[in-house]
Specification:
acyltransferase activity, transferring groups other than amino-acyl groups, Acyl_CoA_acyltransferase, 154 residues, globular, 5 helices, GNAT_dom, N-acetyltrans/Recomb-assoc, 7 strands, Aminopeptidase, four-stranded antiparallel beta sheet, 34% helix
């Protein structure tokens, strides 16, 4: 596996984060969600929206040779993993799992007993493989998702 580095996201990374997120929605989520949902979803992904979330949550970026290939957003205070996104060209190669392991370590070091998340329908299997349990369907706006949780073994 390539030499991947995971570090705290910086405001300079926001444009790349937005670009990767849009590609993920257009190329990966569009296999599961209908065109109208995708169109509305893409409107919500923009620099201002991400910048506003930078203040209230932790962002990390995954880089190979200084190029960002993915990112994640989470909140240690509320125990929520908001998202892990890996650029479509890098999906299915284990990078998402590496990003997740980095985040899980942060939760454990912070003394958290569980991680909660809302998985997109296409990411449900990914999180199930990481040990998350399905708690039933939920909605984020008009996006159907699966509420999931993982106990961290305390």
């Amino acid at each position: 596996m390539d030499n991947i580095q995971i570090s705290k996201g910086q405001k300079d990374d926001i444009n790349t984060i937005v670009e990767i997120h849009k590609r993920c929605v257009e190329q990966t989520n569009s296999k599961v969600y209908d065109k109208k949902v995708i169109a509305n979803w893409l409107k919500e992904i923009n620099h201002e929206n991400v910048l506003s979330q930078f203040e209230n949550s932790t962002w990390v970026v995954a880089k190979i040779d200084e190029a960002i290939i993915g990112f994640a957003q989470y909140g240690l205070d509320d125990g929520v993993l908001y998202q892990i996104q890996v650029g479509p060209a890098y999906q299915g190669k284990g990078y998402g799992k590496l990003i997740y392991k980095y985040i899980e370590k942060q939760f454990v070091e912070a003394g958290k007993s569980k991680i909660s998340l809302n998985a997109t329908l296409n990411a449900k299997a990914f999180y199930t493989n990481l040990g998350f349990k399905d708690l039933g369907n939920t909605y984020f706006g008009n996006i159907e998702m699966t509420k999931m949780e993982k106990q961290l073994g305390f």
